[in-house]
């Protein structure tokens, strides 16, 4: 008999608004760079179905899709997924339906809505080339807070006030499409040096209009997107926000700023902050080690009073359980660990002395048999 006292914290359910997650083990957004940029730009297909579907079979409680662009110019690469038209929404609906139907634990799925800003139109990591994709190879003019490029990427065009308002509207339209496609939640990508983070970081945003300057103005775009997404989805659907809680550079965003951003976002209806770090500028010294971002998830959880998810080099079951048990975060995202082992949650549950239900097709492999 399992001692109730030792029941794994990782496998306790979590409720966000009306969405009940079976447990706290989730899949973070992971770009697959696998769309056909010419015949079906932004349209997910069989690769995405199998990639995301395997985590549903593996017992994840929540799967977040890869960064999915709210308009064509917002793609990191020409091969990214999107949600700016109905063809994309229909393709996503098939994947959402598969995840819902194939999971024995009741896996939920959310879409990560993104705009890459000045880091758009780049080669995918497994391309032969690096840097910005030229127009001759289906690249486009990237857009940013200013004309300043990211490292050696092509210079972006600075967004006008009108462009910024259009981007906000595109986030709202994509969120409405996500609801129609059956997604259970929406995550706004405000991290990793993409557009919202570019506006939030003083290292990147040197604008002098309503969208730049002091912290309130730098955070204005993220919060305007939160408002737009919140009003495009039903009141009972949770909205998640991924942030980079530090730029890892003197003079950039730090934990104290991230706490203020999280507090403001929560006041506007964000239900959980997914806490990552870095990405605004290329030259950052990041002390990467197991669980290195967990202290930021704890700081935001404790000081902003909003639920958080922790991510980054957490791929051991006991380590993940400790993050929840210690009160550092409300959920743990396992990325590369899940690519290595798509049934990570089944294995983790077993290692922690409990069992998740298996899909009936796989029951003969269950440890409890
Ligand atoms: C292949 C791959 C693609 C990724 N794509 C995204 C993405 O689309 N959006 C995002 O917010 N983070 C992305 N990330 C970062 C992951 O969500 C996660 O934060 C990171 O991998 C650290 O977690 P891990 O150590 O468990 O892998 C990606 C990571 C990998 C490995």
Tell me the strand percentage band: 5-15%
Major sheet: size, sense and barrel closure? 8 strands, parallel, barrel
What is the assigned CATH homologous superfamily? Aldolase class I
Radius of gyration: 20 Å
CATH topology: TIM Barrel
CATH architecture: Alpha-Beta Barrel
**Gross geometry:** globular
Description:
33% of the residues lie in helices and 14% in strands. By secondary structure, it is α/β, with parallel strands linked by helices. The chain has a single domain, classed as Aldolase class I (TIM Barrel). The strands form 3 sheets. It has an 8-stranded parallel barrel with strand order 3-4-5-8-9-10-11-12, surrounded by 7 helices. The protein is globular. The two termini are 16 Å apart. It binds flavin mononucleotide. The site of flavin mononucleotide has 20 residues, from β4 and α9.
Compact overview of the structure:
The protein has 369 residues and is α/β, with parallel strands linked by helices. Helix content is 33%, strand content 14%. It has a single domain (14-358), classed as Aldolase class I (TIM Barrel, Alpha-Beta Barrel).
Q: Could you name the key traits of this structure?
A:
10 helices, two-stranded antiparallel sheet, alpha/beta, globular
Give the topology, please:
Layout: E1 14-16, E2 19-21, E3 25-27, H1 46-57, E4 62-69, H2 86-102, E5 108-114, E6 143-144, E7 157-158, H3 161-181, E8 185-190, H4 195-200, H5 215-232, E9 239-244, H6 255-267, E10 272-276, H7 294-304, E11 308-311, H8 317-325, E12 331-333, H9 336-340, H10 344-351
Parallel strand pairs: 3-4, 3-12, 4-5, 5-8, 6-7, 8-9, 9-10, 10-11, 11-12
Antiparallel strand pairs: 1-2
The structure holds flavin mononucleotide (FMN).
Residues 28-31, 66-67, 112, 189, 191-192, 242, 276, 311-314, 334-337 line the site of flavin mononucleotide.
């Amino acid at each position: 008999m399992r001692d109730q006292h030792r029941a794994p914290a990782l496998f306790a359910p979590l409720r966000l608004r009306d969405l009940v997650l079976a447990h706290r083990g989730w899949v973070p957004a992971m770009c697959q760079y696998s769309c056909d940029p010419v015949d079906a730009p932004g349209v997910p297909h069989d690769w995405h179905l199998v990639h995301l579907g395997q985590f549903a079979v593996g017992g994840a409680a929540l799967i977040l899709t890869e960064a999915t662009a709210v308009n064509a110019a917002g793609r990191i690469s020409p091969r990214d997924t999107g949600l700016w038209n109905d063809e994309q929404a229909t393709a996503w609906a098939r994947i959402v339906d598969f995840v819902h139907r194939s999971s024995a634990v009741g896996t939920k799925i959310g879409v990560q809505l993104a705009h890459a800003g000045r880091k758009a139109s780049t080669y995918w990591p497994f391309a032969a080339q690096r840097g910005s994709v030229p127009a001759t190879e289906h690249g486009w003019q990237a857009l940013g807070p200013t004309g300043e490029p990211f490292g050696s990427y092509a210079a972006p065009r600075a967004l006008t006030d009108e462009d910024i308002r259009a981007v906000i509207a595109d986030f709202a339209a994509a969120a409405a499409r996500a609801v129609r496609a059956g997604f259970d939640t929406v995550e706004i990508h405000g991290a990793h040096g993409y557009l919202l983070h570019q506006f939030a970081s003083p290292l990147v945003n040197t604008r002098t209009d309503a969208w730049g300057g002091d912290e309130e103005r730098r955070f204005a775009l993220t919060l305007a997107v939160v408002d737009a997404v919140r009003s495009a989805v039903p009141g009972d659907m949770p909205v998640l926000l991924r942030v980079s809680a530090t730029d890892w550079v003197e003079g950039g965003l730090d934990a104290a700023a991230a706490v203020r951003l999280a507090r403001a976002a929560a006041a506007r209806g964000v239900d959980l902050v997914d806490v990552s770090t870095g990405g605004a500028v290329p030259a950052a010294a990041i002390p990467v080690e197991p669980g290195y971002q967990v202290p930021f998830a704890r700081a935001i959880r404790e000081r902003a009073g909003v639920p958080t998810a922790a991510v980054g080099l957490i791929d051991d079951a006991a380590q993940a359980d400790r993050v929840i048990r210690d009160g550092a975060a409300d959920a743990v995202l396992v990325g590369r660990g899940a690519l290595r082992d798509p049934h990570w949650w089944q294995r983790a549950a077993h290692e922690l002395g409990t069992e998740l239900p298996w899909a009936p097709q796989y029951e003969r492999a269950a440890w409890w048999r």
